[in-house]
Amino acid sequence: MCGIAGLIDRRGGLSAEALAAAAGAMADRLAHRGPDGRGVWTDAAAGVGLGHRRLAIIELSAAGAQPMISADGRYVILHNGEAFNFAELRGELEAAGRRFRGASDTEVILEGCAAWGADATVRRLIGMFAFALWDRRERALTLARDRLGVKPLYYAEIGRRFLFGSELKAFASAPGWAPSLDRDALAGYMRHGYVAAPATIYREARKLPPGHLLTLAPDAPPRLTAYWDMRRVAVEGLAAAARGPVDEAAAPARLEALLLDAVRRRMIADVPLGAFLSGGIDSSTVVALMQAASDRPVKTFTIGFREAGYDEAGHAAGVAAHLGTDHTELYVEPPHALDIVPRLAEWFDEPFADPSQIPTYLVAELTRRHVTVALSGDGGDEVFAGYNRYLWGERLWRRLGPLPPPLRRLGAAALRAVPPAAFDRMAAAVPARWRPAQPGDKAHKLAEVLACDGPAALYRRLVSQWPEPDALVVGGREPRGVLWDDSVAGDIPGLVPRMQFLDTVTYLPDDILTKVDRATMAVGLEGRVPLLDHRVVEFAWTLPLGLRLRRGRGKRLLRAVLGRYVPDRLVERPKMGFGVPIDRWLRGPLRAWAEDLLAPRGLAEDGVLAPQPIATAWREHLAGTRNWQYPLWAVLMFQAWRRRWPI
Questions:
Q1: pLDDT band at 244; cut points 50, 70, 90
Q2: Fewest Cβ atoms nearer than 10 Å: which of 295, 338, 446, 645?
Q3: Into how many domains does the chain fold?
Q4: pLDDT at 438
Q5: Same structural domain for residues 196 and 249?
Q6: Quick one: pLDDT at residue 440?
Q7: Which residue is catalytic, options 2, 22, 214, 549?
Q8: What range does the domain containing 599 cover?
Q9: How many CB atoms neighbour CB 406 within 10 A?
């Protein structure tokens, strides 16, 4: 894992020294991603400067240093990530006459591009990667990003200058970088809690979408091409599932074989390796397969919280004891977790509001004290239908869908007409054992669901922080991306598979994988995600829905695989997630910090966010009548980001 950055100055105004200085400064902004080495390469005649920060994982010698030049001298590569099938590809290339100077996977990708071209090479790769390839002969740049978006890659055009990098902060050291706030992207962020691709928080910058190549030829605009398409995978997988019955008895063995291969490949490293273990289905499956593939105890790591409802350390310890891993746990005290909050805007250099960023960083920090690579169970919910919203979304629409829309709207209006506090007072007459927490809050959330005019709107509501973000962002208009694409329902008719698909192309790369990448890279730790091996994803989409979700339980087939290694009693429990008590912290130790950022006068002076709805939410949250923790966290993370990266 590394940090890559570079620029192409088509104006020709920068000398070799200036190009080297700029590329080196951009790379140095990413030093946390690559503490083991630094490299710079320039082609002054073409206006090219390339910078690299190295986290040495495979081939620790200088033979793995970057920027790396191909054996024929034509290509130069910057690479972030790993190609886990590099040994097989190297064998093919050597058989074709290619000679290698080192043992790195980067050199295999480089020589593959020289022999087969970039498009053919990325289609052969099994792994997570983002790389930049400079063709010295054609003076053309190719950027590539892995299929699921595990590794990030950003780019920007400023006049006749082109920039790229692993993180947006690299651009801050590029000559001429003067970004402006994209208020439309900010409106989208207020819905999701992340800035959805391909937008960034800056008008001038974009994210390279997963599964895409970008080609920049001389005197031409950037050209995007897809080499892998998640929508096609979903459509073709569903068609395969519909063509004939699946042998359900054989399916667990097929999945186990795929997962075992994916895990074994991700255990290849020349540095110490371990795994995150929460004790849930996903991480337990990964660790069980790691232990099955290892001749020594696998190093596993977990963190615990003393707050009730947030601690999974005991479950993780039980799984670790059963599997015989070398287990390390750390109980985090609130002051330690709270100390991280002011640093979040530094690591997530565009607004990012998933509060699980805090425990993810904490477990990465713990793990990095012992190993340099860690496998995780991320992706299991999207691939194997594990989120509660799949179950509840389908159940809700089955009950609400048949109701006439005017009746649903009438019911929603009636619920909204009663203030949350009034519901709370009425509920006080109900015995405590039958009374839900915050009944007024739940009644108003039910009103929002009733008002949905279709399953697409219901899904959007289930994944929204602020459901009407245009009213929150002054001058902002939310981008209408794939969540508003009516053709998705035609390709993927079932609501649960459709939600899985939408999560996989939005929430997974832009939230989950962004969170894991930034949290692990902040401490120089490489995170690997075997459940997102593209072969596993493609196989999972060929399974009938009954092998994903049945009788109110998701991940049916994944549970069957895990059951061969870990008894059900150790992993079967209500889904907890990986969170921290933000709701309580905002009323307690974070209150002063939050009130400073949410001050109505400051918001009004900024002229970006509307103060009134934020003030109302803050007042109701402090009073305990409604739980606004996630919408407020989105506002707070934007405000904190803007102070760190003022524009």
A1: confident
A2: 295
A3: 3
A4: 56
A5: no
A6: 52
A7: 2
A8: 581-647
A9: 8
